[in-house]
Write a structure and sequence with these properties.
The chain contains ten helices and five strands; from the N terminus they run H-H-H-E-H-E-H-E-H-H-H-E-H-E-H. With 205 residues, the protein is mainly α. The protein folds into two domains: 3-92 and 173-201, Rossmann fold (3-Layer(aba) Sandwich); 103-156, no CATH class. The strands form two sheets. The protein has a three-stranded parallel sheet with strand order 2-1-5. A two-stranded parallel ribbon has the order 3-4. Helix 4 links the parallel strand 1 and strand 2 (77-80). Helix 2 runs parallel beside helix 3, helix 5 packs across helix 9 and helix 6 (109-120) crosses helix 8 (144-156). The chain is elongated, with a radius of gyration of 19 Å.
Length: 205
């Protein structure tokens, strides 16, 4: 959901610790906040957000989006990774239809799983990269050839877009979002290589 379209709200001020304030005041291009649950990471991010009027908050699921909507300042956007990727993709493929089972309709389940894992790992076409993905997810390397074909044919089918495609199409094609002053990512320790690569599709600064 795009908070800027809703008008947003002004979140209440909170008292930060010294370490939290250091995050808010930092002028580094990238900041990683590593803290235990309940230590105020979200509150710190919300305080940091108040320094910007054109920001993007990326979340893993709709529940997180719902939770932070009323905490972000006016003018901010809050989206899941997939909704952001889908929005970019639809700018270039306006008639594409969402189909989360796009790759699962293929014949061999192990090969399908390997193809989907390979996208999440942002793997390339080299045999070494495919072997690495197969080993990482304990799938026989004998499925690499079939998985390669599934992925190649699936990507070529631009009438449908899967959850994995929503990030991979912008990555592969160099598609970009509009410019944001800053991007905040919740629970970034859980990012997979594909999601990390997708962040390069969002111009900031």
């Amino acid at each position: 959901m795009d908070l800027s379209r809703l008008g947003g709200v002004t979140p209440p001020s909170i008292t930060l610790t010294g370490k939290q304030q250091a995050v808010v005041d930092s002028d580094e291009k990238a900041i990683l906040v590593n803290a235990v649950a309940g230590s105020g990471k979200t509150a710190t991010l919300m305080s940091l957000a108040r320094n910007y009027t054109n920001g993007l908050y990326l979340a893993f699921n709709k529940a997180i989006v719902t939770d932070v909507l009323d905490k972000l300042p006016v003018g901010w956007s809050c989206k899941t990774f997939n909704s952001m990727g889908l929005a970019i993709s639809k700018e270039y493929m306006p008639n594409v239809r969402v189909d989360f089972n796009k790759y699962k309709q293929a014949r061999f389940n192990n090969a399908v799983n390997l193809a989907q894992h390979h996208m999440s790992m942002n793997g390339n076409d080299s045999p070494e990269s495919w072997a690495k993905t197969a080993d990482r997810f304990t799938i026989s390397r004998t499925y690499c050839g079939e998985a390669y074909d599934i992925l190649k044919n699936g990507k070529a089918n631009v009438t449908k877009i899967s959850g994995e495609d929503m990030l991979q199409y912008p990555i592969d094609n160099g598609w970009k979002t509009k410019h944001y002053d800053i991007v905040l990512v919740d629970e970034c320790q859980d990012l997979n290589p594909q999601q990390i690569a997708f962040l390069a599709c969002i111009p900031t600064g």
